[in-house]
TrEMBL record:
Keywords: Membrane, Transmembrane, Transmembrane helix, Transport. The chain crosses the membrane at residues 59-80, 100-121, 142-166, 190-211, 218-241, 287-306, 318-341, 361-384, 413-435, 441-460, 472-489, 495-513. Coiled coil: none annotated. It comes from Pieris macdunnoughi. It is found in: Membrane. This is Solute carrier family 12 member 9. It comes from the Eukaryota. The lineage of its organism: Eukaryota, Metazoa, Ecdysozoa, Arthropoda, Hexapoda. It is a multi-pass membrane protein. Residues 66-556 form the Amino acid permease/ SLC12A domain. Belongs to the SLC12A transporter family. Gene3D superfamilies: Amino acid/polyamine transporter I (1.20.1740.10). One of its GO terms (molecular function) is potassium:chloride symporter activity.
């Protein structure tokens, strides 16, 4: 409850700007202001507004999205694997698989378009969308998988390009005829793939914008080649087509091209799976393997999003270009499927995957199409992988591991080289069809994450989720989500399980180790969803329906400085038992129109919660006095039914405060609250004179009781050693509870609500981790109070926590027997101890309500009585009590308004408490008002 104003409050000049905005202004324009001329030359990036700086060339929708998406989707499928699909799966299954693949991709594209039109999309494409939606942990995990998906896809396309190269220019190749051509073999193929990969590296190092601008020319070339293929079906006459040199599974040398034939179309209508001659051992083809290859023809849909950092207007270009490309490729695949099924025999399709070459009117057209489509798709994926890796590095997802990947300016050279190296490892596999299976699983996982992100955004109903793309809903995202999950686990359960395990492991690892996890600068969808659900459940949590059976501690701990209260905060965290824990602090002051003086301090309190590793909320109050601030927190802390019912205060004594943040032997030692300027956060009290007055402290206690909340005063917790508590071999063995009222000691006190509240708190502490090996001891006295009538009248006025009609709890029975029965009914494992040496109050004098009301009671308690009681409790504490719970005497009744007469009365009350608890183990003085125990089922 410090009384000084915050020295770290923001200055007036910068209070209206966010730090990120100020930093960006300074970085862009230096210390001076921007001139109108500099503003007119180009656009700058403020917050979510991205723009084009002078001299930086960006690409448009057609060249930047449509062409890369079409080239990536066609890749190896359009010219090299259509025969594999139709020849094995047949026309109907092939069309069904295309419908399934495009259905999933279509719903995913709707999600991509929704997210990409909801704000500025920067480099990293899909990773950027997922991470800015699902947070750094999940986004980093999916981004990593998406990076590897691009790497594998690039390896697949390079393998396909090599296959096209060998089929055309290898031994007996279609373009070299009987001449030797390029040598063939596993090592030669690896050499060709390495050369192609290195050429891709060279182009990537030259810059992605170069590729984006040349993609238009590549697309035109490929369209011409594809058009020649379509025309050839109508022009080429029936003929026998020789098998390729790479097919060693069959002894046949040629297969029939029939031209348009109803019989051929009917023959190819249904599936008839054969063997894959492109694999070393001729593996048997099945539905899953065909779909794995087919799905590579739709994975390129992300190519446009990957180029987001190179686009003039990503939010416009990505939806328009991607949807148009999707429609164009779908028509091409469907047309090619029908033309192939109607003209080519099944033997030709199963034994010659490059059947388009020999039936074309001019074979070089198809050869050029094969090479350009596959190489450009591999290059696109290589560039996409490097941009995802660059984005992961810039976001500090993996800390120092990827820090070298952050480019100082321009092209991310190291990220490109790393991507190239991993692609080089991937091409060792060689088999296009084998790579395709892994490629499909990784991309489906990425699609799953995109749909999940969009579904979460829509369900969270965040006001800032206002995408300009309207052709989506939570239903389309859900269908895409379920479709991806069902597809991946239905077709490749082993691969799917491995990817799911890898993703979950990455999420956990990033949550624990990633530097970005503690500073999610882009926000996390989980927070929006949590808010949405918590609000809903808080409304359902009706305080009128609370039942004692399900009571749990809801604690408000008011502290002055965490530096001297760290062990107490740690202890209360153990005491809450899954309940609410609020750390409250009062600052004396008032609003003066210059801003909130507590705003800059609040972030340090959140860091404190992280440092102490406690599950607590922070509430700060600004008030004219500490008492009024404490009253505000007592009344207003929490929300709905989640409001504290127990208030804890540190003890007002003369002990010198200990700075646990600077003590080298303290487990709470830290320097993060010591500023470079020499100032410290949370300054501790340095002298007795800085304490709040006795009357204000007592009035805080009275205020808490007056609003029907339980009160706990905590003393000597600076001596609490949690390491010793948790160590089973230490001398600390017990948790002590004294069910004795100081002024009116009686055996009936053990059965009152206030006593059972203390017993319940002790039982809760013992159930916490680290305390479970301690034993619970309950101490009572076997005595009748000096003024029994007054005591019993007070006892009867309270709601009993157990039924008095229970015969086993009859007052006629010995107190320890009754207490043991009560403990069994309450399922509390504890030992009972009857204190027979409790001193009598013979010299206490006549006690009456009048003397209690005017505060004279505490001035007439003999010092010898307090010392004797203190010695009795201390003797039990020395047996190994880790913490002690005792009853708090009711504070004196004071006048409604403070006066000078309050101070001596309150001083006397606090002196009684100090003498009563002097030199004890960590002690909690408890006064409970609510029934919190239940014997009912």
């Amino acid at each position: 409850m410090a009384e000084t104003m915050d020295p770290l409050a923001p200055s007036v000049n910068e209070s209206s700007f966010t730090p990120s905005l100020i930093n960006k202004l300074r970085m862009r324009f230096g210390s001076g202001s921007a001139t109108p001329r500099s503003m007119a030359e180009g656009y700058v990036e403020f917050g979510e507004f991205r723009a084009q700086a002078p001299g930086v060339k960006k690409v448009g929708t057609f060249a930047g999205v449509f062409c890369p998406v079409v080239l990536s989707m066609f890749s190896a499928l359009i010219f090299i694997r259509m025969g594999y699909l139709v020849g094995n799966a047949g026309t109907l299954v092939t069309l069904a698989q295309f419908a399934l693949a495009y259905g999933i991709v279509g719903f995913t594209v709707m999600s991509i378009c929704a997210i990409s039109t909801n704000g500025a999309v920067e480099g990293g494409g899909v990773y950027f969308m997922i991470s800015r939606t699902l947070g750094p942990e999940f986004g980093g995990a999916i981004g990593t998988l998406f990076f590897f998906a691009n790497v594998v896809s690039s390896a697949l396309c390079i393998s396909a390009c090599t296959e096209a190269l060998v089929e055309n220019f290898g031994p007996n190749g279609y373009l070299v005829g009987d001449s030797p051509g390029l040598p063939n073999g596993d090592w030669y193929r690896f050499l060709y793939r390495s050369v192609l990969n290195t050429i891709g590296l060279s182009v990537s190092l030259a810059g992605a914008s170069l590729f984006a601008r040349t993609s238009l020319a590549i697309w035109v070339t490929m369209v011409v080649c594809l058009a020649s293929a379509f025309l050839s079906f109508f022009i080429t006459t029936p003929a026998m087509i020789e098998k390729p040199e790479t097919n060693t599974l069959t002894n046949a040398t040629s297969f029939k091209y029939t031209g348009f034939s109803v019989n051929t179309f009917y023959e190819n209508l249904y599936p008839k799976y054969g063997r894959d001659y492109s694999t070393n051992d001729g593996e048997m083809v099945d539905f899953a393997s065909v779909f794995g290859v087919l799905f590579t023809g739709v994975t390129g849909v992300m190519a446009g999003a990957n180029m987001s950092g190179e686009l003039k207007s990503p939010s416009r270009s990505i939806p328009l270009g991607t949807l148009t490309a999707l429609f164009f490729t779908a028509l091409s695949y469907i047309a090619l499927t029908f033309l192939t099924a109607a003209t080519c025999s099944r033997d030709l399709l199963q034994n010659n995957y490059v059947y388009l070459l020999p039936i074309n009117v001019w074979s070089p057209f198809i050869a050029v199409g094969m090479l350009t489509a596959t190489f450009s798709a591999g290059l696109s994926n290589l560039i996409g992988a490097s941009r995802v890796l660059e984005a992961l590095a810039k976001d500090n997802i993996f800390g120092f591991i990827l820090r070298p990947m952050v480019p100082r300016s321009g092209n991310p050279i190291l990220a490109v080289i790393m991507s190239w190296f991993l692609v080089q490892i991937g091409i060792i596999t060689g088999s296009l069809n084998a790579i395709a299976q892994v490629n499909s699983v990784l991309f489906i996982t990425s699609y799953f994450a995109i749909n999940l992100a969009c579904l979460g955004l829509d369900l969270a109903s965040a006001p800032n989720f206002r995408p300009t793309f309207k052709h989506f809903s939570w239903l389309t995202s859900l269908i895409g989500l379920v479709g991806c999950a069902a597809l991946i686990f239905g077709l490749r359960p082993a691969y799917a399980s491995a990817v799911a395990l890898a993703c979950c492991s990455l999420v956990v690892a990033l949550h624990l180790l990633s530097p970005a996890a503690s500073e999610p600068k882009w926000g996390s969808l989980s927070q929006a969803l949590i808010f949405h659900q918590v609000r809903k459940y808080l409304l359902l949590l009706d305080p009128r329906r609370e039942h004692v059976k399900f009571w749990r501690p809801q604690m408000l701990l008011l502290i002055s400085s965490p530096r001297q209260a760290a062990p107490l905060i740690d202890f209360v965290n153990d005491q809450k038992k899954g309940g609410l824990f609020v750390v409250g602090h009062v600052r004396v002051g008032e609003l003066d129109g210059s801003g909130d003086p507590l705003a800059s301090e609040h972030k340090y309190w959140l860091k404190l919660i992280d440092h102490l590793k406690v599950k607590a909320f922070v509430e700060l109050s600004l008030a004219e006095s500490i008492r009024s601030g404490a009253a505000q927190l007592t009344r207003l802390a929490g929300l709905g039914a989640m409001k504290p019912d127990t208030v804890l205060l540190g003890f007002r004594d003369t002990a010198t405060p200990k700075d646990f943040f600077r003590d080298p032997t303290s487990p709470y030692k830290t320097e993060q609250f010591d500023l470079d300027s020499g100032e410290i956060i949370f300054p501790a009290r340095t002298s007795v004179s800085t304490r709040i007055s006795a009357s204000e402290y007592v009035r805080i206690i009275t205020d808490v009781l007056s609003v029907k909340k339980n009160i706990c005063l905590c003393r000597n917790f600076h001596t609490l050693d949690m390491a010793a508590v948790e160590r089973r071999s230490s001398s600390l063995k017990y948790i002590d509870v004294w069910l004795v009222e100081l002024l009116t000691p009686s055996r009936e006190e053990a059965f009152s609500v206030r006593a059972l509240f203390a017993l319940q708190l002790a039982a809760v502490v013992r159930s916490a981790r680290g305390w479970q090996h301690l034993r619970l001891r309950v101490h009572v006295v076997d005595a009748t109070p000096l003024y029994a009538d007054l005591y019993l009248a007070e006892l009867d006025s309270m709601d009993s926590a157990v039924e008095r009609s229970n015969p086993s709890l009859s007052p006629a029975r010995p107190v320890h027997e009754r207490l043991e029965v009560l403990l069994k009914l309450l399922r509390i494992n504890a030992t009972t101890h009857t204190v027979s040496e409790w001193p009598a109050l013979d010299n206490f004098g006549q006690w009456s309500e009048t003397s209690y009301d005017n505060g004279t009671t505490f001035s007439r308690i003999p010092q010898s009585y307090l010392q004797k009681v203190n010695q009795i409790i201390k003797s039990r504490c020395e047996d190994g009590a880790a913490v002690t719970f005792v009853q708090l005497p009711h504070p004196p009744k004071l006048a409604p308004h403070a006066s000078d007469a309050d101070e001596p009365v309150c001083e006397q009350y606090l002196q009684v408490l100090e003498d009563f608890t002097k030199d004890l183990s960590p002690t909690i003085l408890v006064r409970g008002l609510k029934s919190v125990t239940s014997t009912a089922l």
